[in-house]
Amino acid sequence: MSDQLVISVDAMGGDHGPPVVVAGVDLALDRLAGRSVRFLLHGDRDRIDAEIVRRPRLRDICEIRHTDLVIASDEQPARAMRRGKGSSLWNAIEAIRAEEADAVVSAGNTGALMAISKLILRMMGGSDRPAIVAPWPTLRGVTAVLDVGANLDCDAHQLLEFAILGAAYYQAMHSDGSGRPPTVGLLNVGSEDMKGHQEVRDAHALLREGDFDFDYRGFVEGNDIAMGAVDVIVTDAFTGNVALKTAEGMARFFATTLRAELTSSWINKAGAMVASGALKALKARLDPSSVNGGPLLGLNGTVIKSHGGADASGFANALLVAANLASSRYAEDIARNLARLAPRQAGPDAGAMSEPAQ
Amino acid sequence: MSDQLVISVDAMGGDHGPPVVVAGVDLALDRLAGRSVRFLLHGDRDRIDAEIVRRPRLRDICEIRHTDLVIASDEQPARAMRRGKGSSLWNAIEAIRAEEADAVVSAGNTGALMAISKLILRMMGGSDRPAIVAPWPTLRGVTAVLDVGANLDCDAHQLLEFAILGAAYYQAMHSDGSGRPPTVGLLNVGSEDMKGHQEVRDAHALLREGDFDFDYRGFVEGNDIAMGAVDVIVTDAFTGNVALKTAEGMARFFATTLRAELTSSWINKAGAMVASGALKALKARLDPSSVNGGPLLGLNGTVIKSHGGADASGFANALLVAANLASSRYAEDIARNLARLAPRQAGPDAGAMSEPAQ
């Protein structure tokens, strides 16, 4: 591949398909600020083209790869694997394996994306399934929380791998350039060594003993997430999914409550009008789509999942994550740290994939 | 016991001890609005008395039960059980067993409170440890989330018991008086039947088949909590604790961000000043101490845990929860529904208690 970055895009994924995907490509182009980039857009040629004609500058840097086949958002991953070959999602991933592209972005069916990515690209380590990281806005910036994907029951070694994956991701995406290694915490119900269930206590012991390129800080609790206590927070996908969705619910609760209070009388309305700049800025900081774009970690290749409901701005952000990860050293970081595990990692077999969480 | 309600209080528990406890009793008296109530205050006579002399109306309704022994907030539960006999916490619970009081409230060491309550009062059902319910402010009122205590690894039968305990608690504390049975949801990472790990899927099947005095609505997700999608949400204590603390972190994040935005310029400050009533009302709605007071469910007796850091108003609320539960039919509700489990509940033995979560 040349110095030009190529991003492969599933143009049919998500709630909106081509209109949001192509508008997202257009926005991403501005944010990529002069970097040389091309896009492979997989899906219905006519629908994609209808969006591109309205944005002439995209004509030269977008290549449409037509396919009629689309994996439905509610299709079972096992079924998608059987009959998804040649779909927009499948072809988008295949372009990485064929070394035609450096990264892939899809807002489609998460389970199918995970299963087909694993099938085509294979896992790097001993993990059974790719891990999904949630970039979480905090008081100190962004904390990477993983897994929020499909690894619902995790043993200590899987949690250890998540630490490696998350630290490499954080280093690539959010490093402050100081050379300081990322800090990593293990999510638990207390900070003392004897707290929590067996898996987290075993992972705690392995992380303390190990020699990795990150700074392990021990157990953290749920309230440490939004405080930004550490850069990377490791947990199983059941807990991670519940934490993430609980926080989303809280954000909606706050926004609704604030709006109700600020419209409860004319004097409050007047105050809200005067402070409208602050309230808009607040909304932007709480908006999850401002940090949309979660990579599927642990694969031989850069695969980014966008929220199905993300708007063009959110999708553009996912494209930026793809561009930044693909041009970083994170794959080497992961490989180097996973290699240090090799002696103790007998590892469960990376067997067949059953139903993922989301 | 007479019609007069008697509440037994561990006056030495929590971060503040007698000053906050006695001030809380004083506030509770106003909120109990003429109901006939007495308090047994267990702890250091001099320190408790110093607070009571400043509030003459408490003299006749408070009885001080002196003890020098206090269980430290960081004491291991196993050690507290061995050497805690005669402590303020122990004596406060013992007063229920001796039928001198109808309910007990403590802001002390949660692990010790659970262990000693279980030792003195015994469990009603097959559960190993008492369940702690978090009353969660939502867009629709309050949702009861349990367990947020010590049952970290739960099988399907334990989750089923939590549904029974939570529904009875909700009926007693938050019923709208319409006779509508409480709605119950099981916390999971998706709403379809095949989502989640084995324990939640098995519990889902048991709850659907069972005949209970509540309305089981199936799986709910993290974002459903703050939306108030159901009245009672059931989960294991690991997940529940993480969800609760994640939400606490989000509340702090939200408040801090709002404050920063509203003081970022003179115009925003002016707006905030004009709308200060709304912002104060918002703060009150988000304040966790406004719903302080979590019962330890599943015991033969009403035991309420107050946050260790709660202020007098929060402690007063915990006393109100004690008064309301003790004068409700929730104990009978639980016994009746647990009895319906009996045929299938072989049950794990209610064995020795190890370290709880918090």
Task: Spell out the blueprint of helices and strands.
2 copies of one chain form a homodimer.
Chain A (H helix, E strand, L loop, with lengths): L4 E6 L7 H14 L5 E7 L1 H8 L9 E5 L10 H7 L4 H10 L5 E4 L3 H12 L9 E8 L2 E6 L9 H19 L8 E5 L10 H12 L5 E6 L1 H6 L4 E3 L2 H26 L3 H9 L1 H11 L7 E4 L4 E4 L6 H15 L3 H12 L17
Parallel strand pairs in A: 1-2, 1-4, 2-3, 4-11, 6-9, 7-8, 7-9
Antiparallel strand pairs in A: 5-6, 5-10, 10-11
Helix pairs in contact in A: 1-2, 1-12, 3-5, 4-5, 6-7, 6-13
Would you write up a description of this structure?
2 copies of one chain form a homodimer. With 358 residues, the first copy, chain A, is α/β, with parallel strands linked by helices. Chain A contains 13 helices and 11 strands. In chain A, strands 3-2-1-4-11-10-5-6-9-7-8 form an 11-stranded mixed sheet, sandwiched between helices. In chain A, helix 1 (18-31) crosses helix 2 (45-52), helix 6 packs across helix 7 (198-209) and helix 6 (156-174) packs antiparallel against helix 13 (330-341). The two termini of chain A are 33 Å apart. Residues 344-358 of chain A have low confidence and may be disordered. Chains A and B meet through helix 8, helix 9, helix 10 and helix 11 of A and helix 8, helix 9, helix 10 and helix 11 of B.
